[in-house]
């Protein structure tokens, strides 16, 4: 068995993202090279089939225009040759065009995986050669004096044939050779300088059309390459999205399983812990008599204190698990935030006094009640005050403020003169069991669950949680509850009104 390395731990059981991308690229290159080696044209099979498909589509769609063009040439040729000759030539052109169209449609209807590309390429080349031979018979239409007409007809036929067969170079060459030979044969009708010049220009034009078809072929291949790369990118993006969705689903399932496990274990641990706390409290208070040794009393106190610490930790884990699992139910009722804050301040006064800390409280007495969970509000305030007392050094100060928000809601601010939190550690302290470096060195031990629980409870109430801190300047936590939870004072009940009081009405008015 090989030793476990840091790289193996970092990437887990599978390759890293960069390694997976590299392997995918190598596999794609190997597949492409294998297809090119087995191809006669040096392209991938998919490209060969696509080029033949383009040719077949062009040929299948050009039958009617070519037929009309052949009829026009035959009608014009009747000025030099008998109608029967022109009609026979036009009929031959129609038959060859029909044959090529049928071959093209047959290719388009075949299964791409079962097609023999080499055989079909030769079929298309043979069809082009046959059709060009028929077009070349046009020189017979101008034999009695219309050789110039035949010359330009051959040039037009060469242009059409090379453009239509551009995606199959062998077919383009097969289509052009008979037309060039027929063009050169026109020199037998006249040996004048003008005739030689015209024939030379016509032949050069036909060769130019062949070069242009090669450019069209290269452009089509480039477009196919671009489309293949785009399709590959889209496929990779789809695969990456699918992998991301699957990873997110697994993470959500794992997080839910973790929360359920913690909730179950918390309940299982609290049962024996309650017994430990009960018996240790009996021993600490010497209910059944004094201890024979004074050390036993100290041990009992240590057992009880450790049990209480463990119970608080289990309660925090249970609360956080319920919040993350979405199973924390709020028991909402009219609650006076100022009263809850005052009770919590009184409960933490002894701990602050033990560290010679000064707590400054500023509470707006005009605040109405909130429609909220009293237990959750009390836990929010206690956690924030406990953190402030815990992280503030002896002799420090703590500012506790409760008041209106600009939009008519209520806010709670807890600020201390502690060591503060660096900006790069704000995310750490907001995570479960996360604690900053300065907090670990200067503060008492804690679980690191206080702030995540506070944030979760605030969000359950529809409020906002803000954490502001800078090193050596202290920390401030602001909890804002929405105006929709603030309640107006109920109007007095008179004798003329029903005895039942109306339900509490929520308001979003701006406080003066």
Automatic annotation (TrEMBL):
Spans through the membrane: 68-97, 133-160, 166-189
Domain Histidine kinase intervals: 264-485
GO molecular function, one term: protein histidine kinase activity
Reactions this protein catalyses: ATP + protein L-histidine = ADP + protein N-phospho-L-histidine
SUPFAM superfamilies: ATPase domain of HSP90 chaperone/DNA topoisomerase II/histidine kinase (SSF55874), Homodimeric domain of signal transducing histidine kinase (SSF47384)
EC number(s) reported in the record: 2.7.13.3
Disordered: region residues: 488-512
Residues in coiled coil: 230-257
Keywords: Coiled coil, Kinase, Membrane, Phosphoprotein, Transferase, Transmembrane, Transmembrane helix, Two-component regulatory system
Enzyme class: transferase
Pfam family, one: HisKA
Name listed for the protein in its UniProt record: histidine kinase
